[in-house]
Amino acid sequence: MKCHILTLFPDMVLEGLRTSILGRAEEKGLLSLHGVNIRDFAENKHNRVDDAPYGGGAGLVMQPGPVYSAWRSVAETCERQPRVIYLTPQGRVFNQEIAGELAEEEELIFLCGHYEGIDERVLELIVTDYLSIGDYVLTGGELAAMVVIDSVARLVPGVLHNDASAEIETFSDSLLEYPQYTRPEEFMGKKVPEVLLSGHHGNVDKWRREQSVLRTARSRPDLLKKAALTEAEQELAEKELRKTLDFHGEM
Ligand code: 6GU
Question: What three-state secondary structure class fits 17?
């Protein structure tokens, strides 16, 4: 998979993403990250790419020309025109399902805005997808692009050592992950749950599944609606849910 990132801060995005697993994926040729500095396409000798908003108001708006030229410089190297993802709080809220959908693409272009945003006309011309990473405001799209690229790239076959681990964990079945333990067997007086030391895989799986259900009921009960639970698991979840409600004095 090839990701082009159009941004005023390519080093921030590339250094962040290359620090760990994605850096190794790039060395293995499974992933290619390409930063494009929008400032390199400035149309004046001061390298300015922003100006005051028409109609007045606070802040600066990124001009359409440099953004369009930066996109063209990538698009003209592509046989098929890649989707162009603009990171903005106005977008559709990103989730694991969208990550899975984007992971199918061969090539993607991410556009990061700064200041008060980007001139609407160039967005209308080049953007295919508007994505937000949640209901809070960031100073720019770079951190959001890093979040999206990280979660998409780890779904590309071979990027994770263990392909199964991409599937087992949180959200693939609408349940949160179970707790994990490693050595030592006792830490600060706290013991590893006995069942995990038993070597009985059936019991271990059963315990982990219960923990997933309990955790989801406790912290993300909204996810339970989508989870495929057995009748026993549903009862377990409801019992835990009632406990939590009692605790918060809501019943
Ligand atoms: Cl995608 N961009 C910015 N600037 N802020 C955000 C966001 C994106 N998602 C949540 N907040």
Answer: helix
| Report field, pTM of the whole predicted structure over 0.70 | yes
Q: Ligand 1: which atom is nearest the Cα of residue 145?
A: 1
Q: Quick one: fold of 186-250?
A: Trp Operon Repressor; Chain A (1.10.1270)
From the CA of 144, give the closest atom in ligand 1.
Answer: 1
Q: How far is CA 103 from CA 99, 106, 149, in A?
A: 6, 8, 9
Q: Measured from the CB, is residue 59 less than 6 Å from ligand 1?
A: no
For residue range 109-165, list pLDDT tens digits in order: 999 998 789 999 999 999 999 999 999 999 999 999 999 999 999 999 999 987 655
pLDDT at 169: 58
Q: Is 130 in the pocket of ligand 1 (CB under 6 A)?
A: no
For the chain, the structural domain boundaries read: 2-153, 186-250
* CA 24/CA 35 separation, integer angstroms: 17
Give the model's pLDDT for residue 250. Answer: 59
143 lines ligand 1 (CB under 6 A): no
Phi, psi (rounded to 5 degrees) for 141 = -80, -5
Mutate to test the pocket of ligand 1, among 114, 138, 150 (most ligand atoms within 8 A of CB): 138
Our answer on whether the CB atom of 90 is closer than 6 Å to any ligand 1 atom is no
Atom from ligand 1 closest to the CA of residue 139: 4
Q: Which CATH class is domain 2-153?
A: alpha beta
Encode pLDDT of 48-96 as tens digits: 999 999 999 999 999 999 999 999 999 999 999 999 999 999 999 999 9
Q: How far, in Å, from the CA of 119 to the mean position of ligand 1? A: 16
> What is the DSSP code string of 147-172?
HHHHHHHTTSTTSSS-HHHHHHSTTT
Tens digits of per-residue pLDDT, 166-201?
555 567 689 999 999 999 999 999 999 999 999 999
